[in-house]
Design a protein that fits this description.
It contains four helices and no strands. By secondary structure, the chain is mainly alpha-helical. Helix 2 packs antiparallel against helix 4.
Length: about 70
């Protein structure tokens, strides 16, 4: 009887699965764009401006990642 049980992923229509793939890709592209914007904005600051806000240039990638992805 277990051989005939459908898993949740097998029950999803191909169109729904494809839509999910595209939605995930679109979300990931949007997140990456936000990361790039944040990184570039901070990276374009002068050393003095970074010092004023307490950010080391070497921390910019981590700050952008935390801002966008939260981890």
């Amino acid at each position: 009887l277990m051989a005939h049980a459908l898993t949740a992923s097998a029950a999803i229509s191909p169109f729904a699965a494809l839509r999910t793939v595209f939605e995930t890709a679109r979300r990931n592209l949007a997140l990456r764009a936000e990361y790039n914007r944040t990184f570039n904005e901070l990276n374009n600051l002068t050393r003095r401006e970074l010092d004023d806000i307490g950010v080391a240039r070497s921390d910019i990638a981590d700050i952008a990642r935390l801002h966008v992805y939260g981890n």
